[in-house]
User: Fold Peptidase C45 hydrolase domain-containing protein from Paenibacillus rhizosphaerae.
Amino acid sequence: MVNETKPFWFKRLPALSSHPAVWASHIAQHWNMEAFRPQNPMDPEKVRLALRHFMPELLPEYEALLSVSPDRPGEAQLLAMYNLPPFFSGCSNSISHRLGHPTLIRNYDFSLDGFSGVFRYEPLPDEGWIMGSAEGGWGYLDGLNHHGLAAAITFGGDFTVGNGFSIPLIVRYLLATSATVPEAVERLNSIPHRLVQNISLLDRKGRFSVVYTSPEGVSAADGLICCTNHQRQVQDSAHDEHRTVERFDHLLRMGGAVSPQDFHKEPLYHRKFSKHFGTLYTVEIDPVTETVHYHWPEGQQLLATPASPEAEINIQLSEK
Assistant:
């Protein structure tokens, strides 16, 4: 029976391109990047060419970070998150209309020891910002930018692996470059995807979409209010034991009449921490108020805004 106190941090970092050493220290402190280091690394120049071709806006930050990172085999590929060992999570996402304007609420389901627990604010070179749940060093699992674009991922239910970028860097790319849902969808269509993932998008104008990505291609379901761990069809390889269809149907029936507290109830909330599938946090992302609000079942909360100070919160997570 798992019963553990997990720390979560809200961190404020300076701009990556001008403070790469600070970021390198941040990454070393919070992520076990070795777990994703490729066993047969690609030529670093081929990695750069791939990033330059598909996500050129990230190249200055990437080069700055690489310049202060350890000179180890596969470092260039590791930081570019290209053709890395795969990881699969769970998650449930839904648009909510409870506040009179759309927000994006989601549960992040993963193993206790597999998530760093870092929520982050960072300024961008163009005086913008990104704020959200960090992963893979400089990537994101979900978040919001200064334009009011919100994004959040779920596993897509198929274990197919192809040549492409890992989802945390793709989410960073969307939040660093896109202002609206149509713009983000267009960018997603131009990127090779390593895994099968779903991405919920919401913008300040209230447009929302679920984008189904895979190594085979990308398709968007504009106006779809929710997603769980399958795409248009449930694959035999999907996480059937995690009730993906039941969760999806539940959220679809709710039709946006959901709150963070609803995500702490059956069938959305998971406590299978000993089986590496528990809900680690619930977050509501609000493009209108520019807030990212984290919730846990015992009533603990962490509110992140562009002006929020750094904070640490300890959460009791158990299977009871």
The chain has a mean pLDDT of 95. The two ends are 8 Å apart (CA to CA). The first helix runs from residue 20 to 30.
